[in-house]
Design brief:
The protein is an alpha/beta fold. It folds into 3 domains: about 130 residues, Chitobiase/beta-hexosaminidase domain 2-like (Chitobiase, domain 2, 2-Layer Sandwich), CATH 3.30.379.10; about 325 residues, Glycosidases (TIM Barrel, Alpha-Beta Barrel), CATH 3.20.20.80; about 130 residues, Alpha-glucuronidase, C-terminal domain (Alpha-d-glucuronidase, C-terminal Domain). The protein has 21 helices and 15 strands. α3 runs parallel beside α5, α14 packs across α15 and α20 runs antiparallel to α21. It is globular and about 80 Å long. The protein binds beta-D-glucopyranuronic acid. The site of beta-D-glucopyranuronic acid has 10 residues, from loops.
């Protein structure tokens, strides 16, 4: 009895404590991502929204519509701080009903003209419109499909979460890219290649009997951004994924993801017919191999009727491929594409190849291997190209292949996980980097032929288009390791939907949903985010340098081990890719090639990527290369120090848990940025033989 009394008192105080700490925002662990739906901080705005959304009607019944209902109950209830009644039928609609449904399910007045507008929205777009329904002002979310409704509902909740004016809504939105995909580098043993947020989410050993509820939250987070595909396993694939044992597991995941509009794809191992098919060859021209893949694809579609297709890494970093049999990449891709075509599946064939036989300059190899194959791929093949010609460096010029394969849909591969950008220790917002790639002008059809247009399929009118992000999620409670790494998942999804969105706007909308609406907090966090990428470029690879990291881990500085990339010598620094050097500049179209070829016009951010520059060469600032290099490394370390100071100002203004967890990582970043500065400058000084200048005082800059 006594015990019961104590425990109920304890429970009472525990509840009080939780309520108190929640109000003060003391204990958020990051699990909720940008879908927190905390009550609006401003009572005026909350009151206004309550007036504008009095009731909700969602037409129809299906798994996706149930998800929409649940999200609106959760989202509106949380944000508005009260339950919003759901109506049973449209005829009950009153003033300020939020109406959600396809036109099939919604007998709405013709004069609203929604049908014509919907015709342009395809099967994923949506329309959100303020309109009079039965003389009542209402908000309508409609689309041609339930997926469109799902995206529209999430968009509407985003409007509220970012405190937008919803008085006169008249907006439509359609994705600019068709396949918007996460690439997981997960292994079947439960690890994540280049993952810094714990183990694989998939829990293969438990599937299909047990499916973690967390996977529903994963699908929901992706749907909230419009991500519509997921490649479950690493491109360094294991043939086992194609065995019935694993296909059953994959099907269990696909069942969970389907109502969220998320299709499943698999990375396949080209030699699978030998490894699990009992054949002695995987030659794409061998009829038994062709038949094996056809049967395998049929089997997959029996398990997963909406299966997306295959991702393939072939003849790259030791992976098997068609070249093992004297066939081309196109021969290999097309054989798989033919097997998938009757089921409307596609092949995403990676261009990440750099076999030494191709060219002495690694940065030229993928172009040399793939540009000649343009026009040879089947119509359901996309060639998947990394953003830059090397490998996810802190900064790279855009891959020249984006201007070189007009007859092939090119899928842009970005890396969300921070393999070369400080893992989940560093605060780096990657949207500015991705925007630099998307805005890069290939000049393929004259000025304005940006990478974004190529990837959207607009430049050469391709029916297929795609973008992939190497995922940064794992089993960590906060999904991504670093709380700010969530912003990169977020920004990837939003940019995949619309590459035209601005990095700063994305930083701001993420911050408002994730941390706070307080203007000073928003400003502080957005500034931190927007400065962070350039800061890390300065820390590691300024002025176009690249691959200066250790072999193992790709985290610590190791310039001494990377001479083949930086080419430091007594004369200067940088890789000569001008016409006098490797000639990589001529993989770009005029006038881009001329601009890059000329030391005077090559943008300084790419300088040492394209040129071997003398230590005493004056740069734009008037300072020599050596002094400028020192300034950049010093600025990188200084920024890491400063960002920690700035962050400290937020103590007590955001929840304590996330504050401290980010603080702890900023401390690591500060320490390690200083180590980068010292390691790189001490090493390069051996060649420059010049003194390291004292760091510039803030007033010198
Ligand atoms: C590199 C990674 C390696 C991947 C490879 C790839 O270091 O682990 O397998 O990319 O993209 O960046 O296949």
């Amino acid at each position: 009895m006594k015990y019961a009394f104590c425990s109920s008192r304890l429970a009472f105080f525990a509840v009080l404590f939780c309520l108190g700490s929640w109000q003060l925002g003391w204990a958020e662990d990051g699990y909720d991502l940008w879908l927190r739906y905390r009550p609006m901080a401003s009572p005026e705005i909350q009151k206004q929204y309550r007036r504008q959304i009095g009731t909700v009607f969602v037409a129809g019944e299906s798994p996706t519509l149930r998800i929409i209902r649940k999200e609106l109950v959760h989202g509106l209830g949380g944000l508005l701080g009260q339950d919003i009644p759901f109506l049973e039928s449209l005829s009950a609609a009153k003033a300020s009903t939020l109406i959600v449904g396809t036109l099939e399910d919604l007998p709405l007045p013709k004069e609203l003209g929604l049908e014509t507008r919907l015709r342009q929205l395809g099967d994923e777009g949506f329309l959100i419109q303020t309109a009079e329904v039965r003389v009542h002002p209402c908000i309508i979310i409609t689309a041609n499909t339930e997926r469109g409704l799902l995206y529209g509902s999430f968009h509407f909740l985003r409007l509220l979460q970012t405190q937008q004016n919803i008085s006169h809504l008249a907006l439509t939105s359609t994705p600019k890219i068709r396949d918007r995909i996460l690439n997981h580098w997960d292994t079947l043993s439960g690890g994540v290649g280049r993952g810094y947020a714990g183990k694989s989410l998939w829990q293969w050993h438990e599937l299909p009997a047990t499916v973690s509820p967390r996977l529903t939250d994963y699908a929901r987070a992706n749907a909230s951004l419009g991500i519509n595909g997921t490649v479950l396993n690493s491109p360094n694939s294991e043939a086992r994924i194609l065995t019935p044992e694993y296909l059953r597991k994959v099907a269990a995941l696909a069942d969970i993801f389907r109502p969220y509009g998320l299709r499943v794809f698999l990375s396949v191992r080209f030699s699978a017919p030998r490894e699990i098919g009992g054949l002695e060859t995987a030659d794409p021209f061998d009829e038994r191999v062709v038949a094996w893949w056809e049967a395998k694809v049929r089997e997959i579609y029996q398990w997963i009727p909406d299966f997306g297709g295959f991702l393939v890494k072939a003849n790259s970093e030791g992976q098997p491929g068609p070249q093992d049999y004297g066939r081309t990449h196109a021969d290999g891709a097309n054989m798989l594409a033919r097997a998938l075509a009757p089921h409307r599946g596609r092949v995403m064939w990676r261009a990440f190849v750099y076999g030494q036989g191709l060219d002495a300059d690694r940065a030229k190899r993928a172009y040399e291997a793939f540009a000649p194959l343009d026009g040879q791929f089947a119509s359901n093949v996309l060639v998947q190209v990394k953003n830059g010609p090397l490998d996810f460096q802190p900064r790279e010029p855009a891959h020249p292949l984006f201007g070189a394969m007009p007859n092939t849909p090119l899928l842009l591969e970005l890396q969300i996980t921070q393999e070369y950008l400080g893992h989940s220790q560093y605060l780096v917002f990657l949207a500015p980097m991705w925007k630099e790639t998307l805005d890069f002008d290939t000049f393929a059809h004259g000025p304005g032929s940006t990478v974004a247009k190529v990837v959207e399929g607009r430049l050469d009118n391709h029916a297929l288009s795609g973008i992939a992000g190497v995922a940064n999620v794992g089993s960590d409670r906060n999904w991504c390791g670093h709380h700010f790494a969530q912003a990169n998942w977020y920004a990837f999804g939003r940019l995949a939907w619309n590459p035209g969105l601005g990095a700063q706007a994305l930083a701001e909308e993420w911050t408002r949903q994730t941390f706070s609406h307080e203007p000073d907090v928003v400003r502080t966090i957005v500034t931190l985010m927007m400065d962070s990428w350039e800061g890390v470029v300065n820390t590691m690879t300024p002025l176009g340098l690249n691959v200066l990291c250790s072999f193992r881990g790709h985290y610590d500085p190791a310039p001494q081990a990377r001479a083949s990339f930086h080419k430091a010598d007594a004369a200067g620094l940088g890789y000569d890719r001008s016409r006098a050097g490797s000639g990589a500049v001529d993989q770009y179209h005029p006038p881009q090639n001329e601009r890059l070829n000329n030391l005077a016009t090559c943008p300084e951010k790419y300088l040492l990527w394209f040129h071997h520059v003398a230590w005493n060469q004056p740069l734009q600032s008037g300072r020599t290369l050596w002094v400028e290099l020192c300034r950049h490394y010093q600025a990188g370390a200084e920024q890491a120090r400063r960002q920690r100071q700035i962050w400290r100002r937020l103590q007590g203004r955001i929840d304590d848990q996330r504050f401290h967890e980010v603080e702890a990582r900023l401390e690591i970043q500060e320490r390690d940025a200083a180590a980068w500065r010292d390691a790189c400058l001490n090493y390069f000084q051996k060649f420059s033989k010049r003194p390291i200048p004292a760091p510039a005082a803030a007033s010198d800059e």
